[in-house]
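One-letter codes give the sequence; each number marks local geometry. A record appears below:


***
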Amino acid sequence: GGPRRLLLVSNSTLHGGGYLGHCQQHIQSFLGRKVKRVLFIPYALHDRDAYARTAREKFESLGYGLDSIHESCDPVEAVRKSEAIFIGGGNTFRLLKALYDNSLIHEIRKRVLEDGIPYMGSSAGTNVATVSINTTNDMPIVYPPSLQALGLVPFNINPHYLDPDVKSTHMGETREERIRQYHEEPNTPPVLGLREGAMLLVEGDKATLQGVTGARLFLRGKKPTEHEPGTDFSFLLIDTNPPNP
């Protein structure tokens, strides 16, 4: 198999555009011409049929066929036969629980890390590509057996990263404070805050920030740093602090 290839998008829809409109050129350049069909995993939303219709319409407009895993009688076999995988956004807890319930964690890891098929995630689909879903913004509406996720990269991501609004009177914790609380726990990996419109492209041991907005990087015990599109994040792929199983 080839090296891992991941396109991890912060959000599915950017203000003023349609579904995946802001990243459609990235998708085409990422999937290329070898991929003919994409396996879609709609588990993050309750209405899987409607979700699959939306995704199918978009991917067909880009020249790719789309099969939704929820329409398959054997989800594991669907992953084994897939040419590329796309996991969409929604509720991260619901998504991860369904991945465990359908015995897909190991199968997706194998296809992506060993066989080298392309993996694309947006929002919740980006969350589950990382070490764990500890840094999701979602409510735990269901109870997955573990918060450990696919581990396609050795760090965490916070999609839809929001900067504090200086004019707001809201006194709840900012996103930055919540990530800092996560890093107060021992052995916690880096967290990449991806603003809406940002995405991370991983090809083998190279990771590059893409899109129209920047990202904020949180390393345990250090001040967060600001990064523009084009930033080389390859150093994050070196797993210096593997989590305890």
